[in-house]
Amino acid sequence: MMISSYQLRLITEELYIRFPLLGGWIRRRAAQRLASLASPQAIAILAEASTRHPDRRVVDIARQAIEQANQPAAIDAVCRVWASSRDAWLTKHITQNSLVARRPIEVRLLTALKTGQADLVQRYKGEIILPLLQVCDDRDAQIARLALKTLNSLKNQAARNEVCRLVIEQDHPQARLAAIQSGYQPSDITQRGIFFFLTDQWQAYQELDFDQRLLRSVYQAAPAALRQRILEKIRQSGQVTILNALSVHEIAFETQEEAQSLASLLTSYQQWPRLWELVFEAHLPISLEILHTLASQTWLPEAEDERQMMSELVSLTSTNLEISGEVVRSQIPAAVECAKTNLLHGRINELAFSPTSAVIALGTSMRKVTLWDFQSGQQLGVLGPFDHSIGQVSYNQTGQLFFAERTNSDAPCKTYLARDNEVIPIWQQPGSTTALEPLAATQLLIAGSDHALTLLELTEPLKVLASHQLSYWPRAMRLAPDGSFVALLHYGFEILSIPDFKPIALNHQGSWRRSVARCAAFTPDGHFLLAGTYKGALLLLPIGAMQSQPRVLAQHPSRLLGVETLNDPRLAISLDASGTIQMTEWLSGKNVGKVQLAQERPTSLHVSVDGSFMALGTTDSTLSLWDLRPLTVPALFEAPLARSTPNQLAVVNLLLGREDLPGPTRGALTLLDRLLRHRFRYDIDISAVPTIKPGEYDIEIE
Asked: CA-based Rg of the chain, rounded to a whole angstrom?
């Protein structure tokens, strides 16, 4: 007979009822009813009652039902209760009847060992090992003894592999003892090498990995904890030859502690040349310690240029240096203005950074597009004239340029593709094109004042993949990083899926209707939308939950004009009408930088694809170009130098050109400059790193 869980709960309550007169009768009736059900759930309740119920007659009914239960699921239920209670009567019942649970695996293991059926365990692979190790310390001496015996006589290689894995990854003491005593070793040759190494089986290790090739491959891929154990094992063993095989340049530090361990290890073995190499790979505080150590030992490199470098570095370390990333962040500008371009005629309506070159495309009111190389400070060419002013400009990921016209009337406006020195009209619609978003390399999303949203496939002939008529015309549009949905900005904002244009989220109501988004950007992971409002609030909204109360990430003094996001560091950059630019961590909401423009009246904010540069448009047809790479400099004080890039060396040079740096910060940046120049001396010409050509330039497009 089947009953509901609610009815079962009522019967269970009756089983433990404490009425003074009829209580005993009610309890026995409940026990008899459970016994008659004989379901696994009922047997589990009776098994619990058999271990702790105060009414002896109820216990007798429960035990009789348990003795008669023969369904596998009911036996599993009895075994689970026994595993947790270790009740004497249940123990006798299980052992006399040789009952073994089917699941869970922990209970199956306990019952198999208790009933002397340990051979059942040998059928399992790696999944049995962790439960088996736990049972080796069981309070039942018989079970613990059989578990240990089973652990030391595993026949399945997959189970043996799991024992060795626990030794390698967790340094599990019981697994280590069993593996060594029983001669277990991993079947994978790489894992076998590191297993021999970590268990002090030096002869076996040397025979297998005589050139330390396996150890190097494991070390490079291992998590920080395992790498730390490898270094500690080298220190304990005194195996200098193994230490020499681990090239400093191959070591990718995750923590400062790991770098410190290697530095201490090399110092203890007086491996001064290796320690000198580590100066240019470790975290900056560790590099300073190493330089002091080498200086105190009066050690010098063999090559003359290396000696000169060390002398200069040691001299720099003798001054007061600021090596705190947080302090440095507060003392350097978040962005550096490098250049301005002035359009001599007309105004700049829109711009876009090329993803493949140091070029900005400017859409102008002169019905033309001009291409500006900001690295050389030169105008590369002019496209046009066209029928109307150019209001939209955008590049796709392969560097193809798209631009579109705008007008104050319903006159037809075209969208163009510039490719291989050829300008091709690809679309026409009544009224202005208000937004362009290329998708991948072959698609283009177009929104216009005619309320139309169109997805094009850029083939020959051109294909319309999807079209959608909106109840509004989008003022702006932002595409999600993976291209799966798009945010449309109007009196509110709406998110539609691509390519079917189904609504994912909508928000144009609520208490802040008059402060709706004027600009927006997705976070790089695509999980959130950052929206800037007319009242100056930078809002963070989770995709799919737009109707929930948004989080105010930052508050500006006036309406927001532009929002962009960076991936590394994970920042939101927001610009308001007063010329205030804020850099905010979009995960924590922490303000990490601020720039205040002097006299310009900004209109727009754009960031290059790699996040290195920023362009600000103004109402007086001026474009200012900014270097954002100072935002990455604090990471040089917190991460190993091995992760540094020539791009960071370039920005250190940029900052050293400023006169407003405090002395300790300038000293630390000078030290970083020398370290990075030495590190990249053979890799790249620093002059080849993309930069902005400083200066003020006039653009003539007539």
From this structure: 36
